[in-house]
Amino acid sequence: MEKKDKIELGSKDGAIVIRENLEPEIYAPMDLGEMHDNVRFTLAFIMYAVEQEDWVVQFSEFVDSIEGKIEEKKDEKAESRRLKFKVIDGDKK
């Protein structure tokens, strides 16, 4: 088993630790309060979501569609830049 680097978290800290070849580790903040409750809820939701295979498939398709739209926008911008140039026939001597 690989050696883990030490990560220190305080009672107000939360983290998702992803290490190569190891299971992700999720640490929720221990302090009370609305912000900490929201962080714990978000971490719990992420844990739940990654276990839902159909959600993972849908999310992957969603990300692919967004990436496709980003590429389309890049292509449109490049094309619009090309359209701004006007070709002028030079003097042929």
Decide which structural class fits the backbone: mainly alpha
Provide a count of the helices. Answer: 2
Total beta strand runs: 2
Biggest beta-sheet profile: 2 strands, antiparallel
Task: Describe the structure in your own words.
The protein is mainly alpha-helical and 93 residues long. It folds into 2 domains: 1-51, no CATH class; 53-86. The protein is 53% helix and 6% strand. The chain has helices at residues 34-51, 53-83, and strands spanning 15-17, 25-27. It has a two-stranded antiparallel ribbon. The model has no long low-confidence stretch (mean pLDDT 82).
Brief characterization of the structure:
This protein is mainly alpha-helical and 93 residues long.
Q: Secondary-structure blueprint of this entry?
A:
Blueprint: E1 15-17, E2 25-27, H1 34-51, H2 53-83
Keywords:
single chain, 93 residues, mainly alpha, 2 domains, two-stranded antiparallel ribbon, 6% strand
